[in-house]
Write a structure and sequence with these properties.
It is a single chain. Helix content is 36%, strand content 24%. It contains 18 helices and 27 strands. Strand 13 and strand 14 form a beta hairpin. The structure holds fructose -6-phosphate (F6R). The site of fructose -6-phosphate has 14 residues, from helix 9 and helix 16.
Length: 643
């Protein structure tokens, strides 16, 4: 979703901003813009469509300034258009802002500001921010000039009382104005602001929407996402909720705010691991296929060092054996693909540890007043670590006294920071909007968690743990095996490509895999797909089956294999075109399926890790055949930072 970039230093800002915006592209957006200080004014350029479009239009503006802010917008309030793209400017054009998040009381603020004479140029919720800052700034500037006049009259004026030369470490007028403006806002925000009368300065504010700031030899950078920050930065300050930061070309100060008092504070910092951040698709045609092929590595990296001396350890969980033992319920909250990984985990946690486990989409959990007690372990799963609903659910659960454990792919992300403990999924940066390798990282991490809970409850003995861990490790080689030959997948894709709709079915683990397979297909190929537990077919969905209708069945070896087979037969007799994911050696299924994609034999508990791979490949293949954009499907964003 939306992304923010800012730079102030001794280099031309525009190329640095464009480079940062390109690094934010993977998040999904529909317009982009930058604002750069040019002498005593601010020049803003916005374009709809791709960053390349914005970049192409820049030469005519001859931007040379060394302080600027930029933004990629994913439309929420108002259509994608140049007028709605950020940066937004104040009425007199002297102040520019970019904003991530949602201003919930924008309509009321807009009405008040319009009554006060402000003219709005966009339909966005964000534009109220710049007008609020404009009002606050002129009021503060007026007060400051009155003070200066008084000091002049009394002959007491000292350099630090001047509006332009604030004491080092004291907030500037712009910082105070941003702080005042934030006081009127309800919602979530990451804001960067510039004012022409304070050259070289950027002021940032945050509430529930991330911002990081880093210093390099040539200037100071700010971004909503560490991956957008210049490579010259090796450590970033992570702005906390409610803090305001002020950047100039050489340094930055962070303030906490209490009422109208701003106190300088030392921010939390984080070293950047650039290896995890490499976004290079190498020999691959797109990031999605590259990331699908990375899955064996993700499995190995996520498992590395976990099973030592006959015992499984997840020290990041930050729970003692006694605390683990007290857990009497697990509640997993997540969205989208992460939710599907959680569905698999429910089976494992209940099956191995015999602890009741609920799985719920975060957007429902957060508004439902769920039963969560101090003995509930809440697990929040999020690739990006910044999904707004998942974060809200975490906060809710912690208020209710639960321990929250995060599983995320992004170092230092809000989910990581707001949870009591965190496992990183070791997928490294995932660029394609459709999650693939991070799903695998989540599955493996959740499997480890289920094993740990079973170990601590004494339900799995050392020998069983050893055997399970060894089989889990083998899935890396099995995934490699699947990836070697995608011919069967391609034949199935050709058979499905012209369909208008498809159905995915499975039972147990296969039901969760079917859900994820259907989501992948919808996302990248825009082909309507539904997933059902196979046993539900007769209760309604079977009405959809007609000759040629694609039915994709997860029919790997499992205690319910025979049941799935009879569900396939029921569909087949009604003319369905069946694609089956089956276990190597299963030739019987060929009698009922038009296309069989075999995968290596694996324990049912681990089958989602391997069975999902052909479905990821199938979705991508169908999308390619239908001429879709693989890495950036329409309407989707990589990080869903608004609810
Ligand atoms: C699907 C996909 C989304 C995300 C969902 C949650 O391919 O990527 O469904 O899984 O938006 O995102 P995270 O895991 O970042 O919380």
């Amino acid at each position: 979703m939306c992304g923010i970039i800012g730079y102030t230093g001794n280099r031309p800002a525009a190329p640095i901003l464009i480079e940062g915006l390109k690094r934010l592209e993977y998040r999904g957006y529909d317009s982009a813009g930058i604002a750069v200080e040019e002498g005593d004014r601010i020049q803003s350029v916005c374009r709809t469509g791709k960053i390349a479009e914005l970049e192409r239009s820049l030469p005519q503006f001859h931007l040379t300034g060394s302080c600027g802010i930029g933004h990629t917008r994913w439309a929420t309030h108002g259509v994608p258009s140049e007028a709605n793209a950020h940066p937004h400017l104040s009425c007199d054009g002297s102040i520019a802002i970019v904003h991530n998040g949602i201003i919930e009381n924008h309509a009321e603020l807009r009405r008040i500001l319009e009554e006060r004479g402000h003219t709005f140029l966009s339909q966005t919720d964000s534009e109220v921010i710049v007008h609020l800052i404009e009002d606050a700034y002129s009021m503060l500037a007026f007060e400051a000039s009155e003070d200066d006049d008084l000091a002049d009259a009394e002959g007491k004026r000292t350099p630090h009382t001047s509006t332009s030369e604030m004491l080092a470490g004291e907030p500037s007028l712009l910082a105070q104005a941003v702080s005042m403006a934030c006081g009127f806002l309800i919602g979530s925000w990451a804001i960067c602001a510039m004012v022409a009368s304070e050259p070289g300065k950027i002021v940032c504010a945050r509430k529930e929407s991330p911002l990081v700031i880093g210093r390099a030899a040539t200037g100071v950078h700010v971004a909503s996402d560490v991956s957008a920050i210049s490579d010259a930065v090796s450590e970033v300050a992570v702005l906390a909720d409610g803090q305001i930061a002020e950047l100039d070309a050489r340094m930055f100060n962070v303030f906490s705010v209490a009422g109208d008092v701003m106190t300088r504070v030392n921010p939390e910092t984080m070293k950047l691991d650039r290896r995890a951040d490499v976004a290079d698709r190498g020999q691959y045609a797109d990031f999605m296929i590259k990331e699908i092929h990375e899955q064996p590595r993700v499995i190995r990296d996520t498992l590395e060092g976990r099973f030592d001396g006959g015992e499984l350890t997840i020290s990041e969980l930050a729970l003692t054996h006694e605390e683990l033992n007290l857990i009497d319920r697990v509640c997993i909250i997540a969205c989208g693909t992460s939710y599907h990984a959680a569905l698999v985990a429910k089976n494992l946690i209940e099956g191995w540890a015999r602890i009741p486990c609920e799985v719920e989409v975060a957007s429902e959990f957060r508004y439902r007043d769920p039963i969560v007690t101090p003995s509930t372990l809440v697990v929040a799963v999020s690739q990006s670590g910044e999904t707004a609903d998942t974060l809200a659910a975490i906060r809710d659960a912690r208020i209710k006294g639960a321990k929250v454990f995060g599983i995320t792919n992004v170092l230092g992300s809000p989910v990581a920071r707001e949870s009591d403990g965190v496992i990183y999924t070791k997928a490294n940066k995932e660029v394609a909007v459709a999650s693939t390798k991070s799903f695998t990282g989540q599955l493996v991490s959740l499997t480890l968690l289920a094993m740990l809970l079973a170990q601590s409850k004494g339900r799995l003995k050392q020998a069983q743990m050893r055997m399970l861990f060894s089989e889990l490790s083998n899935t890396a080689a099995q995934a490699e095996e699947i990836l070697k030959d995608a011919d069967d997948v391609h034949r199935a894709a050709l058979a499905c490509k012209d369909a208008r709709s498809a159905m995915f079915i499975g039972r147990g683990m296969g039901a969760a895999v079917a859900e994820e397979g259907a989501l992948k297909l919808k996302e990248v190929s825009y082909l309507h797909a539904e997933a059902y537990p196979a046993g539900e077919m007769k209760h309604g969905p079977i009405a959809l089956i007609e000759p040629g209708f694609p039915l994709i069945a997860v029919a790997t070896e499992s205690p319910t294999y025979e049941k799935v087979l009879s569900n396939i037969q029921e569909a087949k007799t009604r003319g369905a075109m069946v694609v089956a994911i089956a276990t190597e050696g299963d030739e019987r299924i060929r009698e009922h399926a038009d296309h069989v994609i075999h995968i290596p034999k694996v324990r049912d508990a681990f089958s989602p890790i391997t069975a999902i791979i052909p479905l990821q490949l199938l979705a991508r293949d169908i999308a390619l055949l239908r001429g879709c954009n693989i890495d950036q499907p329409r309407n989707l964003a990589k990080s869903v930072t608004v609810e």
